[in-house]
Design a protein that fits this description.
The complex is a heterodimer of chains A (276) and B (303). By secondary structure, chain A is mostly helical. Helices cover 78% and strands 0% of the residues of chain A. The longest helix of chain A is centred in the last third of the chain and has 36 residues, at 239-274. A two-stranded antiparallel ribbon of chain B has the order 1-2. At the A-B interface, helix 1, helix 3, helix 4, helix 5 and helix 6 of A face helix 1, helix 3, helix 4, helix 5 and helix 7 of B.
Chain lengths: 276, 303
């Protein structure tokens, strides 16, 4: 019996190891070949940091990165506001047919093929009646990324609101505090870690988005993924590996910090709930 | 739990609803109405590149797709839209099945790990999902490259397993590989969410009563995680139908999908009415899976 159990455990670990190898093999390749001294992105020809130096000098790429960071910050902030409002509306007010519809509409862009969402937004911003949106460009990308990310924010915030202990809010309401003030003074500080996580998730979604950006950008507004796509089709050097390594490092550190933070907050919540 | 529906609550609900409703109506519903409108317009050299015909609607784009369907009996007829539909649906179905077969045991073993470890393992599954999608697909280009400098070919040549480099890139297999790789986390997440809630005592009870591991799996574990299977499969299938980045980067010119048709009609071909018509048909085809997803979407997507 215990033989079978230990064989099962070995099998489980083998399967998980294979799956993780599958998920991380391409990332490992990107990182390894970023340190090559040669010109080919798949061959290791001696250790060198030349492609990192190349990356630091690449003004076109740094400009695109700056634009991506700016759009991501704006889109994440807008998605946080609209997504949180959606979550509060759906969790805190009596559900109706209309709120079910809103939930479906807000989450649909998360799953719909992005080319379709992108095409629909291009048709909007280039439509003669909607010229005030300025056509394709930064504003169009901001709108697109916000629309894409607000569903993620709404789902995260809604799940936190559902498990929230409401006694503090009820006490404040009983003492005559207006509901809007209760939300900003009591609810927001309590759910702040979730709001921060939601903002970061929206930020990474915007940063990494290619399809919407490609369809909604104009020649003067090239984000990082749009530039990478152009270079993928016109030959490239291990500089792109160096770029990938930097992105992976930044995201990995960010996610690990957020993960530890969330785990600790969760344990504290569970501990408090179990306490007297 | 819901507060009394007094007039104050009603006013607050209206005030709060302005922003979410305004946003989704203006930036999601209205654009989709425009897709329908443009799909029955006439392509032109104007900006934007379509004009509304005098008669109100121009069904030429739909007629072209229908025309392809009429040639189904003829061998060798050019059916680029229908064949793109066929290969996109086949690819999405294969991706869904492969993700399920790989992802179910993966999610199961993560969910059975000890608390603390399993959250970390799950985080490691999600981590690639947040990092540089284009560059990860590009990495598969390097791995599968058909020349002697492709990573896998280099290893196989060095090991003496093969004498000549294998042609692994720019075919259906490479695209399928890239799709399974990219969509696996979307399958694992909802499966995990259901499997982690599974009461271990039920499995112990089944074993104590003499059930074989297979019987325990088919009669206890699988039925209790069926919603996760449905949610994960839909979360993979729906976006996979419209995927165009992976077929482009790993399929080269050899794998046409409906997502690529939209991209090409929108971009190089400047035939926006055709792109819109294809998008409308895609929405029609996907409306059933999307409704199923909203119904069985699982806790992690609930709003």
């Amino acid at each position: 019996m215990s033989d079978r159990a230990s064989a099962g455990r070995r099998g489980a670990w083998t399967w998980m190891a294979l799956c993780f190898a599958f998920l991380y093999l391409p990332i490992l390749c990107l990182v390894v070949f970023s340190f090559t001294a040669g010109e080919i992105t798949t061959q290791f020809a001696g250790f060198s940091l030349r492609w990192y130096a190349e990356l630091a000098r690449d003004d076109e790429l740094l400009g695109a990165t700056a634009l991506s960071l700016g759009i991501a910050a704006l889109a994440a902030s807008a998605a946080l506001v609209v997504g949180t409002a959606t979550a509060v509306l759906l969790v805190r007010f009596a559900r109706s047919r209309a709120s079910g519809l809103l939930a479906g509409l807000a989450t649909a862009p998360m799953v719909l093929p992005e080319v379709v969402v992108g095409l629909s937004l291009v048709l909007l911003v280039t439509h003669p009646w909607w010229g005030w949106m300025g056509g394709r460009g930064v504003v169009a990308m901001w709108i697109g990324h916000t629309t894409l990310a607000l569903g993620y924010v709404a789902v995260l915030v809604a799940s936190r609101l559902r498990e929230l202990d409401r006694s503090l809010e009820e006490a404040a309401l009983d003492l005559g505090c207006p509901p809007a003030k209760v939300f900003f003074v009591i609810t927001v500080p309590v759910i702040a870690p979730t709001l921060a996580a939601a903002w970061l998730l929206a930020f990474t979604i915007s940063m990494d988005d290619f399809v919407l950006s490609a369809m909604l950008s104009n020649p003067g507004s090239t984000t990082l993924p749009v530039l990478v796509w152009a270079r993928l089709h016109h030959g490239l050097t291990p500089e792109i590996n160096a770029l990938a390594t930097v992105i992976v490092l930044v995201v990995a550190v960010g996610v690990l910090v957020a993960h530890r933070f969330m785990l600790r907050a969760q344990r504290r919540r569970l501990g408090a709930a179990a306490g007297p | 739990m819901s507060p009394p529906a007094d007039s104050g609550a009603r006013a607050r609900r209206l005030a709060l609803g302005v922003l979410p409703w305004g946003w989704v109506l203006l930036f999601f519903v209205l654009p989709f109405a425009l897709i329908v409108g443009v799909s029955v317009s006439t392509p032109s050299l104007s900006i934007p590149p379509y004009t509304l015909p005098a008669g109100g609607i121009d069904p030429a784009s739909y007629a072209r797709i229908a025309g392809e369907a009429a040639t189904l009996a003829q061998a060798g007829a050019d059916r680029q839209y229908l064949s793109a539909w066929g290969s996109a649906l086949a690819l999405a179905a294969f991706t869904t099945l492969a993700c399920l077969l790989i992802g179910y045991p993966f999610a199961y073993h993560i969910a059975r790990s000890r608390p603390g470890l399993r959250e970390t393992l799950l985080m490691l599954v999600m981590l690639p999902f947040w990092t540089a999608f284009l560059l990860r697909v590009f990495a598969w280009q390097g791995l599968l490259d058909s020349s002697a400098v492709g990573v896998i070919n280099q290893l196989l040549l060095a090991a003496g397993v093969i004498g000549n480099p294998l042609p692994m890139l720019y075919n259906r297999g490479a695209v399928a590989m890239g799709m399974v790789y990219s969509y696996l986390p979307f399958m694992v997440l909802p499966l995990y969410a259901h499997l982690v809630k599974l009461d271990v005592r039920l499995l112990e009870a089944a074993r104590d009563l003499g059930a074989t591991p297979w019987r325990t799996f088919t009669q206890v574990t699988l039925p209790l995680s069926a919603r996760g299977v449905v949610a994960g499969s839909l979360l993979v299938f729906i976006p996979a139908v419209g995927e165009f980045v992976i077929p482009d980067l790993l399929g080269g010119g050899n794998v046409s999908t409906i997502g690529r048709r939209i991209w090409e009609d929108f971009g190089p071909n400047q035939d926006w009415p055709m792109a819109a018509a294809v998008a409308v048909l895609m929405l029609v085809v996907l409306s059933l899976p999307i409704m199923l997803l909203n119904r069985y979407g699982g806790e992690d997507r609930r709003l």
